[in-house]
């Protein structure tokens, strides 16, 4: 477990944690949003970010401050917190974004870390080498080696109580991301930003983003606090948190406002296209779309930025409550229905169900089956994996109907889980809420459960009694399991007549 990060509650890969920031004595509850503060242009005053929006941590660009004579002298004179008028934790970036954009910056990791320390940053960042998506492997490996060398050089810099980021690069190569995660964790540094994902997010490649983060998480391990660099749109927070991301930095609240764009948890709207404001935040309650559109540029930008912040912080509170309730995946699925690319991301998330299952609690309040994707949730996988642990012998009826005394035992069958002893009927997740009209995926997963049970017990005679399962599901039932369709009475007559 990381010395500065402690987990409090988990759900899937998501977690509520505490990040202790010793230099300022602040403890940040995660998942947390870090508003990006541009010291040259503040759309919303940093003090208001604390008092009105609840920001406990922010991020600013240490490289930009170092290259501006006035800002540099002021930061060295009074310190970063007073310069920004922000009493929470302050993270500083190193100029890696400028390096990715312009190909060159005038500083080294040692120099910029020393500067970040001298101006009072709570969390500093070395200069890593971001590799864009789809770069050729040779370049990705070379850039990764450079980044790792720079991380190792941090040992020579006196950073005192300042926490230090260890960025994880590797482009879109999962094996490189996983290796980079292991190497970053081995440095003994404190926080772990997954970098160079902004191009993926900007092009709506949420499925690739999921694969990149999942790979980095495998390398980093469960106890590492993870920052998803450049991820600031509320529509993808739930997905990223379910993967195990803890920190997000948002310049989007201000950048989008400058372009008259209005953030929602389903996507982005242009102010000119809105007749009504579909939000309950103070900005939207107190103003109409027409009124905001008619404001002077600076005032309109501020009002939109305020709305964007309310939506972003509100979504993180909603996510935390979902983690506490154990229904984070239901929230992720709801968000996934807002955009086809988000649905791709959710499906990619479920491709990593085995990985997510390791941190997913064994018991929660409820399981809601909402779509075919629900059939691939970690809880279903866990149930199938545990069927081999259950004791079964003799002649066993697996039924969607009633018990039958003609058998040695009679187990229930509930899609998508499949078979289980009746004594487990009131245990999670077998108390799942499922619709009456299930899709084929639910029955296919239930058939997989039957197969897992049959393969684990080759000497047991099984009969499956069902309510008209689709052929694709029945094809997955082993040949040695007798199959019978139930009648209207839900009773099985005991005759083993396998369906054609």
TrEMBL record:
User: Which GO molecular function annotation, any one, does this entry have?
Assistant: pentosyltransferase activity
Family annotation (InterPro entries): ArchSynthase1/Queuine_TRR, TGT-like_sf, TgtA, tRNA_ribo_trans-like
Q: Which domain of life is it from?
A: Archaea
Carries keyword Transport? no
- Pathway field: tRNA modification; archaeosine-tRNA biosynthesis
CC annotations in GO: cytoplasm
The UniProt record gives the binding positions of substrate as: 128, 196
What is an example of a Pfam family matching this protein? TGT
**Key words of the record:** Glycosyltransferase, Metal-binding, Transferase, tRNA processing, Zinc
Q: What PANTHER family does this protein map onto?
A: QUEUINE TRNA-RIBOSYLTRANSFERASE
State the protein's name. tRNA-guanine(15) transglycosylase
Which species expresses this protein natively?
Halococcus hamelinensis 100A6
């Amino acid at each position: 477990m990381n010395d500065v990060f402690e987990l409090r509650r988990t759900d899937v890969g998501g977690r509520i944690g505490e990040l202790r920031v010793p230099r300022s004595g602040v403890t940040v509850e995660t998942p947390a949003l870090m508003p990006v503060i541009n010291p040259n242009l503040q759309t919303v005053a940093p003090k208001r970010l604390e008092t009105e929006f609840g920001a406990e941590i922010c991020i600013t660009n240490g490289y930009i401050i170092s290259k501006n004579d006035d800002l540099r002298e002021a930061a060295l004179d009074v310190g970063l917190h007073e310069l920004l008028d922000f009493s929470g934790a302050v993270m500083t970036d190193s100029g890696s974004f400028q390096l990715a954009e312009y190909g060159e910056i005038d500083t080294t990791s040692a120099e910029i870390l020393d500067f970040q320390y001298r101006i009072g940053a709570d969390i500093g960042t070395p200069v890593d080498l971001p590799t864009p998506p789809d770069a050729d492997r040779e370049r990705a490996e070379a850039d990764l080696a450079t980044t790792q060398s720079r991380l190792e050089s941090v040992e020579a810099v006196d950073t005192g109580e300042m926490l230090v980021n260890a960025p994880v690069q590797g482009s879109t190569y999962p094996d490189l991301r996983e290796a980079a995660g292991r190497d970053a964790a081995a440095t003994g540094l404190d926080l772990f930003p997954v970098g160079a994902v902004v191009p993926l997010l900007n092009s709506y490649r949420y499925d690739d983003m999921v694969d990149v983060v999942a790979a980095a998480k495998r390398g980093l391990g469960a106890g590492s606090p993870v920052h998803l660099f450049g991820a600031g749109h509320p529509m993808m927070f739930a997905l990223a948190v379910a993967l195990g991301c803890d920190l997000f930095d948002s310049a989007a609240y201000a950048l989008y406002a400058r372009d008259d764009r209005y953030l929602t948890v389903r996507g982005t709207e242009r102010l000119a296209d809105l007749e009504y404001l579909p939000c309950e935040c103070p900005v939207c309650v107190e103003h109409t779309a027409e009124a905001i559109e008619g404001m002077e540029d600076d005032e309109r930008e501020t009002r939109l930025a305020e709305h964007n912040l309310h939506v972003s912080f509100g979504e993180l509170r909603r996510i935390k409550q979902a983690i506490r309730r154990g229904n984070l995946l239901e929230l992720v699925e709801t968000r996934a229905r807002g955009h086809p690319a988000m649905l791709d991301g959710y499906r990619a998330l479920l491709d990593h169900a085995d990985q997510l299952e390791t941190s997913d609690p064994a018991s929660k309040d409820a399981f809601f089956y909402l779509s075919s994707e629900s059939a691939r949730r970690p809880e279903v996988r866990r149930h199938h994996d545990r069927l081999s642990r259950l004791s079964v012998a003799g002649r066993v009826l697996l039924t969607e109907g009633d018990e039958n005394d003609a058998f040695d035992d009679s187990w229930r069958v509930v899609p998508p889980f499949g078979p289980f002893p009746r004594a487990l009927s009131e245990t999670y997740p077998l108390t799942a809420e499922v619709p009456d009209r299930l899709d084929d995926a639910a029955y296919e997963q239930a058939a997989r459960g039957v197969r897992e049970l049959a393969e684990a017990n080759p000497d047991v005679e099984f009969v499956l009694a069902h309510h008209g399962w689709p052929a694709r599901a029945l094809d997955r039932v082993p040949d040695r399991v007798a199959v019978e369709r139930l009648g209207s009475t839900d009773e099985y007559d005991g005759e083993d007549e396998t369906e054609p």
